[in-house]
Amino acid sequence: MSPMGTDETYRRIYATVRAIPRGRVATYGQIADLAGMPRRARLVGRALQVLEDDQPVPWHRVLRAGGRIAFTRGTSQYREQRARLSEEGVVFDGDRIDLARYGWSDALDRILWGPPGERER
DNA sequence: AGCGTGACAAGGT
DNA sequence: GACCTTGCCACGC
Q1: Tens-digit pLDDT profile for chain A (121 aa)?
Q2: Any idea which nucleotide's C1' is nearest the CA of A66?
């Protein structure tokens, strides 16, 4: 297996990605920041790349900074991610997603669902 | 131990 | 936005 430090790092990245709500998206850099690893966007990509299929991590909600899917258009991976996002109601504008509308932010979470602890329903 | 590669990003133009 | 440069670093060879 991989070294301990690396495993723990990936675990934290996966935990952060799991926090992205359904129907919303986040960028690689944003996940890195939230996981406490500023400037480690590439590591987030690496972590998702080695993700096992059976792990419950919504990898499809992670996009490039410009709001585009990281995979090359036309690949099966691109189509898979796009299909999953569309199924969650995320609308594409060409090959791009409007981050101002679908981007995840803690602030928006609070507006929509209230502060942690008051999220009944 | 280098070196190229890559699910990336920030900053400047 | 686009494009380019620089920073980043795990991984495979």
Answers
A1: 455 567 899 999 999 999 999 999 999 999 999 999 999 999 999 999 999 988 999 999 999 999 999 999 999 999 999 999 999 999 999 999 999 999 998 777 788 878 766 655 4
A2: C1
User: Quick one: fold of A7-120?
Assistant: Arc Repressor Mutant, subunit A (1.10.10)
* Nearest nucleotide from residue A5 CA, by C1' atom: C10
Q: Which nucleotides of B are covered by protein (CB under 7 A)?
A: 6-10
**What pLDDT shows up at residue A82?**
98
Distance CA A44, CA A54 (A): 18
| A1 Cβ contacts chain C strand, under 7 Å | no
* Interatomic CA distance for residues A120 and A116, integer angstroms: 10
Q: Domain residue spans in chain A?
A: 7-120
Tokens standing for A35? 């996981």
Q: How far apart (Å, rounded) are the C-alpha atoms in residues A42 and A55?
A: 20
Four-CA torsion A92, A96, A97, A99, nearest 10 degrees:
-160
